[in-house]
Every structure is written in structure tokens, then in C-alpha cells.
Amino acid sequence: MLLKIKMLDIEATDYPLVMMHKEDAKVIGVRKLNRVHVKVGDHDVVAVVDLTEKIVSKGEIGLYEYLCQKIDTSCSFYAEVSLASPPDSVHFIKKKLDGYPLSKEEIRGIIGDTVENRLSDVELSAFVSAIYTRGLSNEEVINIIKSMISTGQTLDIKRKPVYDKHCIGGVPGNRTTMVVVPILGAAGLTIPKTSSRAISSAAGTTDTMEVFCNVSFHKDEIEKIVDKIGCCIVWGGGVDLAIADDKLIKIRFPLGLDPQSLLLASILAKKKASGSDKVVIDIPVGKNAKIKDTAIAKKLARDFITLGERLEMEIKCMITYGEKPVGRGIGPALEAIDVLNVLDGEGPQDLRDKSCEIAGLLFEMGGKAQRGRGKDIAEELIDSGKALSKFREIIEEQGGNSKIKSDEIPVGAYTHTVKSEVEGRIDFMDTRLINMIARACGAPDDKGAGILFHVEKGEKVSKGQDLFTLYSDKEKRIDDALRALDGNPIGVEKVIYDVVEGELTTFENSWWKTDKE
Predict the structure, then answer these.
(1) Which residues are catalytic?
(2) FRET partner for 194 with CA separation of 20 to 30 A, picked from 74, 149, 256, 498?
């Protein structure tokens, strides 16, 4: 069928999508979400079909923005449209939904079609749901990892061995990467750190590092930086490491699905694609963390180690406390201030301690420290100023102001401080609600927005004492965040509930007197 092309200024999907009139679709036997061949000149693309009776007329085919960028429509005003079959990978997804294991070739087909944008969001959602309900064997996870690596770019790092660390997430703040990388770099170790932006949190490592310098670099630029100074802290999205994983993350997030087998594949594919040899994985455990039980955390750790061996990576896991934020600031600029303060020998003690534990374990894995001595070496590198000097070198190499001081980092112009209504002790910090409130303030898009805590869990507070301050560049955002405070992100437990006083009562008029004389 020959249809007139209509360009649609609609950015809807990351895969080829066209819009047809319902009457035209009936003629060639196409239903909604079926596929058609769209041939324009020398271009022949298979696209998913959306149907309408209003946006395009009979005899027209609407091309969404993604397809407009892929096809040269200057050579023709018309497209030849015909029915197309779904890719084989759709049948493989149905097979997994039915509970059957997938072969290496079938997994390679699904991952390949994901990268080439041959699968719709509905089909990818079905794949994620199948993994969530049916699970994956270790062999299937390995095949997904290898397929993700082979369909994306890999870093070619000359300086070996390559060290790395990763946190599976779920804890506000926790900006250990930005402390660990300069510590290892100051010791002469190689750590090309690629990180992500925030998905559901108030800031990712990339969002915070962006306060200091550029984070978007191509593969060859990253390799050049690492070859020169031994380390970097960059956005993984600037280089297509395990690109299929990024597409699956987009599907997983709105569904709220994070199956552990995909978590394993996601992390290990990117570590292997980065050339990592020795890796520490941080697994926080807490009520609102991704992992809520220590036994589950230990099993996940064993899976990381076992799969790492299959991929020729040495992996050690740290199971950490995930019931409170790490650091005082939540939000890009506030977390950046924490990082700079820690590297300057000050700053939040919990962020310093955890960062030095991770760096210390990496030193021990690399034979740079005796067992149990790694943390001491990490602390010496901070106290000597060498780690801070290395961090400033990273900032300069990535195009930032290497002389910046913590009090020069701009934060939100509008603030509101919340005070304790009672005397007591901080007995809980709701990490999920903390992230929600910081995002209501505007983080991470508003770099200066977020929450600054003045107290820690377990600390005694007096009535009227400052608990935390909200920051934003927009006054309305502060109001939005205050509305979210109906569920308190921080709980103060009274030390004394009440004092009961009264006159001493005699046995005769007491309530426990019996009727017997």
C-alpha cells in the first residue's frame, strides 16, 4: 500500500513507530502494535503500528520523530507499507514467560534486538516481567552479561589492574565513589569510574560530580584521561557501555521491578565493559533499601562473587547499614560539599569511614596493604592531603575549577529549617521519604536543592533544636516539600514520656481493696 508521508513532531519512543488510519490498517490486516515494513527510497524499516482516526487521514502514514531522523524523506513524499512479522525474539520472550530456560542464542537475539530498537516497550516490559516472575539461572545471567558486553562499547584501559567499586543503591547521600576514586588514584592505582545519574534518588554520583566539572566524555576521551592521571569520574551514558542495560533500566523503573538476576547482569556487564579486574560491591541493608534482609544480602553477595569468577573478575562484597543517609547533605551541591569536606580532612565522619573501608578493601585485594591495614592507608592519604590533590587533578582534567572550595559551591537561595518539637533521641530516619522530599525541593535537576541534616540517628536533641534544612532555588518547591513532610522523614523518640504525680493512697481507699472484711 502506498501512503503519503506525514511528519509527526512527537518524540514518543526509542524504537520505530508509525501512525496509520484505522481504515488503511484494515486493508493490509494490521492491528495496533503489529509491525509493518516502511519503505522510502532505499530505506526499508520495520516499525510498530499505532492507530488513529484523527491525527492522520486515510491514505497517510505518520512518522514519529525517531523514524524521521532515521529515514531520508527528501527523496519521496510516499512510503510503501506492507505487513511485517515480529522478530524471533518476541517468541523467545513468550518462552520465558512460560517458564522455560533460554539458550545463549535466544538471549543474544533478545539483547541484540533491544539494542537495535526492534522491540517495543510492551515487549521489553514482558521480558522484564518474565525475569521477575520466572527468574534466571546463573548460566542465563552470564549469557545476558556477555550479550550486553558484545553489543556495546568497551573501554581499552592500558594501565592494569583496573579497580572499581559499586553500590547497588537505596541509601540517600552515600557519595563514597567521589572519595574512593581519588584515594586510589593518589596511591597510583587505576580506577576509571563510570557512574549513573539519579533515577529515583535525589542525586547520583554523576549529578554530584557535575557540580565540579564536565562528566560527559566519549570512549577515546575517557581512555586518554585515565592513561594520563589513572582515574576519572564520568557519566556512563556518555559512552555506550552495555547499552542494552540502559534500555532495560528505562523499562524497569516505572514498573518498580528490580529483579536480582537483572541487577546482577546490569552491574557486572558494566564492570566488565569498563575493563575492571578487582571490584568491591556495597550492598546496603535496611527497611527502605533495595535489600531488606541480611540473609538475602549474603546470597546476593555470593552470586556476585560466583559470577565474577566466571567473568575473570575478583569481587568482594560489603554488606552495610542502610537505615540512614550517609553524609549530611542530600542533593547534588550539598553532597558535593560533603565530599570536598571529607577530602579536606573534615566533613561527615560516616562518609569518611565508609569510603576508607571500601578503599582499604581494594588496597588489600590489590596486595597494596596487609589484611586489616587497608583502611589505615586510605585515611593516611586523606590526612596527608594527597587524596584531595588527586581529586582536584581529576576536576581539572575534566574541565572544571580545580581550586574550588566547599563554601564556594552554590546552594538553593530559599531555605526552611525544621526543628524538633520535643526533647529526645533520633530513633529513625526514613530514607525513602528523605529522597522524596529532596526531589520535591527540585533535586537533582536543581543542583542546589535538597536537605542538609544537622543531626544523626541516635543523637540526643533538645526541644527547638534544628533537625534539618530544606534548600531550593524556587520558593514554591519549598512549599511542595513541606507538604510532603506530613510523613516525617526523621523521628524523635521522647526519653521521658510523662511524669505521674499524686497523693499517697492508703490501703483502705486503694482500688485493689477486696470486698472481704
Answers:
(1) 258
(2) 256
